[in-house]
Amino acid sequence: MQPKNFQRPKDLEASKRKYRIMNLYLVRHTRVDVPNGFCYGFTDVPLAETFISESDEVIRKLQGISFDTIFSSPLTRCAQLANRIADGNEINFDERLKEMNFGSWEGKLWDDIYPTAEAKDFFEDFVRNPANNGECFSDVISRVKSFIDEISSKSEHNDVLIVTHGGPIRAFYSIINGTNPASIFDLQVDYGEVIKLEWRKDYGV
Q1: pLDDT digits (tens, 9 = 90+) for 139-172
Q2: Rounded Cα gap, residues 38 and 46, in angstroms
Q3: What is the CA radius of gyration of the chain?
Q4: Which pLDDT tens digit goes with each residue over 52-73?
Q5: Which stretches does DSSP call E strand in the chain?
Q6: Cα–Cα nearest to 187, from 199, 200, 174, 197
Q7: Angle at alpha carbon of residue 28, lines to 150 and 84, rounded to 5°
Q8: DSSP 26-37
Q9: CB–CB of 73/164 below 8 Å?
Q10: In 3D, which of 161, 179, 191, 156 has the Cα closest to residue 20?
């Protein structure tokens, strides 16, 4: 199975324009060892005992791709996968690639969170309403956009591997493809999934 390849719709004037293209290979961490319905975002949770076999499958999906640089969330569930993929090569750990911060909900069960007034506000508009003492999805988008702006300024970054979480991957997708953030969780991102996005910087005609 090859990485999912999502590209922007072609502009009618695309053939006349000049672009700098950067391929982003976004990898979600493998399964974690937590109870069902456990809320975790910033919380550093352990990986499931199937990590080796799952990470082998991720490595197989990336076979034959030479990366100019590798980035990862510093949380253990991403860092361990990044280390296996990198196989001794340098990894750049970046706080902006962490999962959404669910604040005081972290470590609790969603069944206990859902009935609260704060949760009702959050799920009514998770893009703008933050988790209790945590983030909203716009916060995740802001830090991912900051990350994209920084790495895209470096001309040597053409094929970039990013090991991160479901929330940031959806933020990348929303930013690059112009998807409405309010519907971004319609995008399924499985554990160990590899998604390729093409980022373009338009230099004009």
Answers
A1: 999 999 999 999 998 777 899 999 999 999 999 9
A2: 13
A3: 18
A4: 999 999 999 999 999 999 999 9
A5: 4-6, 18-28, 69-72, 92-93, 159-164, 194-204
A6: 174
A7: 90
A8: EEE---B---TT
A9: yes
A10: 156
